[in-house]
Amino acid sequence: MTGLARWASDPARSRGRRHAEPSPTPRTEHQRDRDRIVHSTAFRRLVYKTQVFVNHEGDLFRTRLTHSLEVAQLGRSMARLLRLNEDLVEAIALAHDLGHTPFGHAGQDALHACMAPYGGFEHNLQSLRVVDELEQRYAGFDGLNLSFEAREGILKRCARPVAERLEQQEPGGIGRRFLDGTQPGLEAQLVNLADEIGYNAHDIDDGVRSGLLTLAQLENLPLVDRFRAEALHDHPTLDGQPRRLLAETLRRLLSAQVYDVVAETTRRLSAADPADADAVRRLPPLVAASEQVKHDAASLKRFLFAALYRHPQVMATTDCARAVVKELFEAYLSSPAELPADHAARADTPRAVADYIAGMTDRFAQREHHRLTGRQAFDTGMA
Ligand code: MG
């Protein structure tokens, strides 16, 4: 493919799919990956799944879908500047959260606790399960049969016992790098960073919009305050317009981080000078932010954790969310007949229950919880 750097993933040299298929010409292999993800059921459900706020709390907050689109945008911008494979970056970004449970991290933690006696639950691995097994759209195979490179990017983290199991099922495949301690391709590395850059900025935005964070609190954050001062300097009239001032601040914050990653990654790439996309996997991480931005971003993250993710109001909804997931799990486990027929027919009931709950949207989980327990978990006025 023309225009790509020699260390970019070349779709013509893909390690291929688990089930051999004819070439998608005139599309490339990674365009096909991206297209399959966009048309999947799990992708459509992202619109009603949340990150920090529960879906019924407001229409303006990020959902998993808008988050994934923002990650794809940030990732593609950086990929183009670095001459990496934009289609692959987009595919990984759009798929990276497919395995998330309803109710964000609270849902994931609750499901993990329920599944502890049965092998646990991990959202990265679940994203892989969605694209490898759970989607049912093709005559010849389960899942979406994505390329190795897309699957490698989707499985961002993986515990050693899981990697060992994957290695047994697929020798030299997707689990191998967690055993060898090697890196994924540059496109996968890039989406990891785009994800972080994206949620740090949009969680500030949603936090302020919800009233849980104040602009005054943000003044103690060097990374944010620098861009707030810059925006005010460029546009003094923004002083009385907090919403626009925040937008101008976050816009600058995003751009600065994107260009910082591009500069640092370019520096690392020219120093390491990898021969091709595969050589990258044996080198230390090459897609990275500068030390200064890394340091500032870490303090931003600590701030968000303490001020937003642990905010009493957020904690109160996450407590409800945890209870919904736990009670759903217990209800289905004790009465598998309540599951849809295809899930009920599976031999491994706990995993079938976990797959079913993980696929739910926030509102469907609430409706099912109400149906099975007769109780209203959230005070939302919806049944
Ligand atoms: Mg994400």
Describe the model.
The chain has helices spanning 29-38, 41-45, 64-82, 86-95, 104-115, 123-134, 148-154, 160-169, 176-180, 186-209, 215-218, 222-234, 242-272, 277-281, 291-309, 312-334, 341-344, 349-359, 362-373. It has one domain (23-313): Hypothetical protein af1432, CATH 1.10.3210. Helix 3 packs across helix 10 (186-209), helix 3 crosses helix 13 (242-272) and helix 10 packs antiparallel against helix 13. The chain starts with 28 loop residues before the first helix and ends in a 10-residue tail after the last helix. With 383 residues, the chain is mainly α. The structure holds magnesium ion (MG).
Taking pLDDT < 50 over at least 5 consecutive residues as the criterion, the unreliable ranges are none
Strand content: under 5%
What string, H for helix and E for strand, traces the elements in order?
HHHHHHHHHHHHHHHHHHH
Principal-axis shape equals: globular
Can you tell me the CATH architecture?
A: Orthogonal Bundle
Biggest β-sheet, characterized? none
Q: What is the structural class? A: mainly alpha
Distinct bound molecules: magnesium ion
